[in-house]
Amino acid sequence: MLERLLSTDEDCRCEPAFEGERLRVESDDCPGLGRLAEAPACRRTVVAALEERDVESVCTRAAGFERAYEDGAAGLLVAAGRFADAVAFHDEDLAERARSDPLGAARVATGRGDALARAAAETGLAAFLEAGYETALRPNVGPTVARSRVATRPPPGATLAERYELDTGAVVRRYGGDGLDTYHLTPAEHRLDAEATATLAAAYRRLARGGVTGGERAPARA
């Protein structure tokens, strides 16, 4: 249901561009906001771009927030791009599905037991057969004006054991699970709502571009 609300295959307006070993995706004008776990249309845009080449990370930006898909999340997206490129000659319908629903395409391919199954294995997509988008595409999120990024979801199977706030305004959550506690820190700036974060990002861009003059008092006029 959430996927259908956020995006459809016709309305993604993300703009991807390669920057070294990163795929940067501007998603301000996209209804799906570049949320790759929830928006199939945004996934399609990203995977289609990754048919061209591999990257180490994918970063989407919208409303003053950046979502960084790294490590395993980037691995899934890259594998999906490789798979879509590899199978397009044999089965264009499956390649198209792999762009928006790579996990579903992987399950179909491995069930076929032919060249498509080999492609899923060779591209690395088969390694994600047991995954779900919520956990496999778990980004590190933060305001574009900040350097810190935090995972917005706890590790799979973790249970919230304690929550408290620091003097700085940051929030600490302690999760228990598998015999090892995990601490999740949310900095104060990450607690701003979307409107406030977008305003902060706009002010930052204006200052960075020299749009405010006036010497030492310029920041106050941003």
Structural class category: alpha+beta
Radius of gyration (CA) equals 20 Å
Percent of residues in helices comes to: 25-40%
Uncertain parts: 1-9
What's the shape?
flat
Reported for the largest beta sheet, the result is: 6 strands, mixed
Mean pLDDT: 83
Measured between the Cα atoms of the first and last residue, the distance is: 40 Å
Q: What's the helix count? A: 8
Beta strand %: 15-25%
Element pattern in H and E: HEEHEEHHHHHEEEEEH
Strand order of the largest sheet: 1-2-3-4-5-6
The total count of strands amounts to 9
Question: What is this structure's SSE topology?
Answer:
Blueprint: H1 2-6, E1 15-19, E2 22-26, H2 40-50, E3 57-62, E4 65-69, H3 71-87, H4 92-100, H5 102-112, H6 115-123, H7 133-136, E5 140-143, E6 150-151, E7 159-165, E8 171-176, E9 182-186, H8 194-208
Name a few traits of the molecule:
single chain; 222 residues; alpha+beta; 6-stranded mixed beta sheet; flat; disordered N terminus
Would you kindly provide a written description of the structure presented here, covering whatever features stand out?
- The protein has 222 residues and is of the alpha+beta class.
- It has a domain at 15-148.
- The protein has 8 helices and 9 strands.
- The longest helix is centred in the middle third of the chain and has 17 residues, at 71-87.
- It is flat.
- It starts with a helix and ends in a 14-residue tail after the last helix.
- Mean pLDDT is 83; it is low at 1-9.
